[in-house]
Amino acid sequence: QTRNPGEQEFHQAVKEIFDSLVPVFAKHPKYMNNGILERISEPERIITFRVPWVDDFGKVRVNRGFRVQFSSAIGPYKGGIRFHPSVNASIIKFLGFEQIFKNALTGQPIGGGKGGSDFDPKGKSDGEVMRFTQSFMTELCKYIGPDTDVPAGDIGVGAREIGYMFGQYKRIRGGFEAGVLTGKGLGYGGSLARTEATGYGVVYFVEEMLKDQGESMKGRTVVVSGSGNVSIYAMEKAMQLGASVVACSDSNGYIYDKNGVNLETVKRLKEVERKRISDYVKEHPQAEYREGCSGIWEIPCDVALPCATQNEIDANSARILVKNGVRAIGEGANMPSTLEAIEVFLQSGVLFGPAKAANAGGVSVSALEMAQNSMRLAWTFEEVDAKLHEIMINIYRTSMKAAAEYGHPGNLVVGANIAGFIKVADAMMVQGLV
Ligand code: NDP
Q1: 121 C-beta closer than 6 A to ligand 1
Q2: What are the residue positions of the site described as Important for catalysis (predicted)?
Q3: Structural domain boundaries of the chain?
């Protein structure tokens, strides 16, 4: 804490991992030596930069850009770019730190990184988003490349922003390095099923947790927070598996449609028209809209999928979910549950799929996009989806195995942290003091 003052989210992420590693040190003291913990929690490089741009009224605006290149122990830095007014060094560092272990868990050769800006895309015109994004990439392009650091999307960064970033990178660097970004459009090197990957992956993961108990998603009532990329495709897959999704949200409030959310409407409102979730009730008057975000966790459900943002479930919301009989939690967002909320879930015996494992589907398909770009091939949707499904099952099994091996059977938080850590720590040890 003295080394990184005031970086609350970063401290939280590091604490969660380090607490889980106690049984590893007890069994294998070698992981305590060589300064592995000190090294792994210090980014290899942090880049902070000025992003000046001109708004539609000719006024110069200035935002701050970040790229944290956290670990290249097992592959090039890989992790999304977030555009949201809350972005600061602590948030990007927590996301980059989590990404190291998540990426290791996928079984793909990718290191950990993350980036972003405190730019708020909400209410900005297409032209403003383009000018900002080009200015952001004008600086970022000096530090990334297909074998160095490969950014992707995250909150506030979707296909439109990736397109603008790719265009600017190409213009400055020349050539056509498709593998420099993932989440690209299908017409210029993107992978089928990347848009769906994180949301689908979360539900595949939850289905696997349930299957192990002889249960399934079929007939379950599901609540999903957010209505962005992860949320929409988590809803879609849950519905495909026979569940009923009754609620979703945005940063202003949530809708409750007890007969089942109409996904086509949500997709159109959020993906095409860029409207608010409150507009849903204008078309579906039987549904209710309520202001505020945490109220969504008061809706009784079997499966809760927090897919919006960090710390959206606190201990109180966790207790309400448990009291209302929730059976499984799948974290689609990064660190959506506070440490206290995780404790409530683990104590209560609900099935808990932590973000690092449950939301790794997006980055896994990003790695598949890199592979396709390298081979100059494009796999079909079915091929990519089948690989994604297999990767999610493997992540579940690897995490369960590590949890059992280190004395915490069934605890996927501990299992995912340990499995990810050991892979990265082993690579660091054989590479000498880097
Ligand atoms: P989007 O920008 O597409 O959607 C984010 C959603 O969450 C929106 O509905 C947004 O509402 C809501 N939201 C954002 N910030 C807040 C907040 N402070 N309080 C309440 N709601 C909020 O982002 P993604 O779907 O891509 O990302 C969602 C989460 O999933 C993030 O934690 C991200 O890091 C994580 N993730 C994403 C991956 C991906 O492949 N996209 C991969 C792995 C993890 P509003 O429209 O009002 O802003």
Answers
A1: no
A2: 154
A3: 8-178, 195-353
Burial of 397 (0-12, 13-18, 19+ CB in 10 A): middle
* 195-353 CATH fold: Rossmann fold (3.40.50)
- Is 114 known to be catalytic? yes
pTM score:
0.96
3-state secondary structure of 97: helix
Relative to beta strand 112-117, strand 77-83 is parallel
Which secondary structure element, helix H or strand E, spans residue 241, and what is its range?
none
Reported ipTM: the value is 0.98
Annotation-wise, does 78 bind a ligand?
Answer: yes
Residue 434: pLDDT band with limits 50, 70, 90 = confident
The predicted structure's pLDDT at residue 32: 86
366 near 355, Cβ under 8 Å?
no
Look over the chain and give the mean of its residue pLDDT values, rounded to a whole number.
97
CATH class entry, domain 8-178 = alpha beta
pLDDT over threshold 80, residue 374 = yes
In this structure, the number of other CB atoms found within 10 A of the CB of residue 366 comes to 29
**How confident is the model at residue 433, as a pLDDT?**
83
